[in-house]
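Why run this: before we spend reagent on co-expression, it is cheaper to look at a predicted model of the complex and decide which construct boundaries make sense. The entries below are exactly what would go into the expression plan.
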Amino acid sequence: MWCALLLALTTAAPTTAAPPWPAHAVLVGTASIDDTTTTLQVLTVQDGVARRAEAGVVAHQRGVVPVGAVVDDHRVVLSVQDGSARDARVVVHDAGGAQRTLLHEAAPGQAPLVAVVDGRAVAFVVRELDPTPAGSTFDVVRVELDDPAAEREVVASRRALWVTPVRGAVEPLRLLVKDDAGSGVDGAAHIDVVDAGGLQPSLALPRVPVRSPVAVGGRLWLEVDDALAARGRAALRVFAPTKPHEQGAVVVRGLAGLSPVARGDTLAVGTGRKDGTVLVGRVEDVDERRRPARGLLERRTGRAGVARPQGVTAAGDVVVWLDRGVALPGELWWVPAPPSPPTLLVAPPPRTAVVVYGVVAAPPAAPATKEAR
Amino acid sequence: MLVVAVAAWLSAACTGSACPNPCRECTWQPVQGQNPSLAEWRTLFVDLAERRVTPDLPAINPVEVGPGRTRREAPFPCHLLPAIAMAESAIAQFCDNEITVISFDCGFGVMQVTSGAAGYPGIEARADINVAAGADILATKWNSDSSFGGRFGDSDPVILESWYFATWAYNGFVYRNNPNNPDFPANRPPFHSPGSLSRGSYPYQEIVWGYLGYPLTKGGEPFQTGVEVSYPTNVPDRGGLFSVDLALPEPSHPDPCSEDCPPSGCPPADRRTLLLDDADAGFTVTGAETGAETSTVTTHAEGGFRDGFRSAPPSRPATVVARWVGTAPATGVFDFAGFVPLDPASNEGVVVTVGARGEAARFVLDQGVSGGVFAPLGTVKLQEGARVVVIVDNDADDQELSRAIGLDAFRLTWRGDGAVAAGGACTTSVECAGAAVCDGGVCAAGCEVAGCAGAAVCDVDTGVCAPVTGEGEGEGEGEGEGEGEGEGEGDAAPRVFARSVDEGCSGAGDAGEGAALVVAAAALGCRRRQRR
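The model came back. Tokens follow.
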């Protein structure tokens, strides 16, 4: 009874409809890493000036900012570890500040990862953390955002070392699966596709650390540690699912953290340099067979630091986290398509974490967002 | 009524992640108590790191030490247990309401002891029992190297980096804590550094590593001094239980609570670090007045150590020479590190020459990394009061014009003394104890004592003889920087010492009088023995 009562207390009742967030608003969670309170911030740029509005407290855990994804112009889905990682929740937080719990799991040691696909929240739940080579059990759970009464649906369940969503994907849902199946081989990973039969392997990846997978333009883009260079450097490689045994063509090579993001057919990626520059382009324009690859254009923040894209609009405006090294806090920038100048969105104090949930899509001109982040 | 009761309970519970949860049954029930004071906490951690365990505390497992993994009651690194406590509970045994910190998963107290909690009665009530239990569990993880990762180097428990796998296992040896986990951002800054990301962006052991470098503030002051710690870069991207033998990441950091001081004693805290910055008076930079693009030195207002830095494009031969001159704060071996500024400093082969005690040392600084941090380069030998000269020119190993050379700051941090006594074999002066230098493969007194032979003068700062060039003070460092120097170059010329092997000249008695040591080479009438 105590548990039920507490759950009821922590699940706020829906309020009257609040005004939606403006188009192109950037939604972020921020928290001092020495504090327990994460607030949702709505960041906008008007006439070259950044504005910030607080949209409520979304979580209480020291130093941990929830991960999540923007659903539409009035909802964001968050994976919250209130109290303990063993008591993780997936919630939908609306523009009025109300939270509704979609999933309340005993997920030992790890909050669910979430993605939003076709207006439905997809959570990747670790059911059992297991140190054996076969890994933990991951449930892929789909929850209907618009139907509070709907039962959650486990669309796939799999033992793996790790499962993480491929961004940019709409349908079919793709997952990056780390899975050495007990072979003890380093770096074994592949891309799986969710279909009616569960998870189906579709693309084997090089046996080096990989991260930040994005599916766009019929191809898979992901960052791999650059075995040819010193540690800390990486390459963005592009893979065609029709050629599953290739190692992928190098599009960009540089400092690790290239962080590709996509929306529609627009791709943004870091340059791997410290000059605050990102690369943006339409996927069909990218010619990875050229050396260096063509079709991605540089766009500058005007500040020194390693620029890591966090989100992109259909118009090609990019949200960039500027990593300024160990001694300086990072900065969040809005880098629109030329000739508009870049705008500093947030310059957080030292030891303040910022997690970007996404950019609110423009309703009339663009189709409903299908970005999964 | 029920709502009132719940509200009362909620108000009684402290905020955060680790408070009593009425939904769970735990081995021990929370009790009322008070946290130790800051001073008591510090004493407690030092006592338990050194295994000074009273009979009423849980015994702490010996750890398997050395290549042969012999069980010994070896001390823990001094800063490790507090850093784990920071990660676990922000160093709190009791909540603000004076009730035991108990997490949802029944983690008890300051060390959040979960495993085998029933075996440690009192962990819910006493901080000392709790920390001892945490240390015991950590030692057990260390000894389980055949499952929990393996070993670093020779399994020396005084070295912080040796504890990487055991610290990982303290939280759970699962792939979630593998640093290769694709959900952790690449090139993440250290946790709790000014540029820190969300705690969820780090594996557990990197949170502890972050607190080692950037400790939590408690009572308005850092709980302990931040210490350097290196991160391994070759952890297998593998799940499950595994065991590998890995070399210690460089540099590794011994962290005893009781320092092993040389006979001359350990220097006080304020004389252990020498910072050489381009904003200091001892910095000069010169460029050939050719008008060539490669001689251009650009000043940047931010992105360097203490904000600003300079940069120059590479050129062969060099057209730009930067020089940092400082005074050694103590005698001994110092870790030498160069700051990596932000853009445009991205040259991957910046050549750094250090004129300190003994032979000149050459290092290569890779600035093609994220930056904003001191990158370790190696060790050098310093003698208290002697001049330290660091030189960077733009004849870099990396001659790619788009990758500029950052001219910013260097840091020297005392680490101890050389181990080889006078007369012992050596390859570099860093190995020699005290102020001795390595001369012909043997540790020996510097030339200010031994003198120089032939046409050489004794450089009192380095303790080695330098050839006389006949060009006066503007020459002679041996780094090829003798051309085109402007004002200030004289500062970096060797301070020579007039003492002959045979005649004794006037030197030894003048050793404490710095100004008297600067003697023009031409004035030396002594016979000198050349050392190099």
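The CA atoms of residues 24 and 360 of chain A lie 5 Å apart. The two ends of chain A are 36 Å apart (CA to CA). Bring this page to Monday's planning discussion.
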